[in-house]
Amino acid sequence: MKSGNACYHSVQNILCSSLLFKNIKIKTHRNIILSVLYGCATLSLTLREGRRLRLFEKRVLRRIFGPKGEEVIGKRGKLHNEELNDLCSSPNIVRVMKSRVMRWAGHVARIGESRSVYRDLVGKPEGKRPLGRPRHKWEDNINMNLKELGWGVG
To answer: Residues near 35 by Cβ (< 8 Å), separated by ≥ 6?
Structure first.
């Protein structure tokens, strides 16, 4: 999250500039801000983190499109989330993360059980568990993503 904020602040002047077209700003957002997601395929995304990422993305998109003016929808005011989704056709940041996780899961499943990556991600750790509710494992998140997509788990 910190690297995303640092990336955002480094291009903040570009994103709010009135001299650039909005499509250039959106491409900048996709190329720079979404590049922070490199390596996110092995992370377990919690609901809180997902909410924070969506809020961050909405803040960046509001910066790109500026305050709602007559040229956007015809009246002044605040851009609502539905209007932001209509203006920007790119998928939200959480969906991008989940698709990358699913792509990595397919890759891990294909490489076979003999490789250490497979054993590390799917294997069971040894030792005592800490007190409290167990954390979601990476494999549990894969199963939840499959259920969300409607593919079901066998």
So the answer is: 7
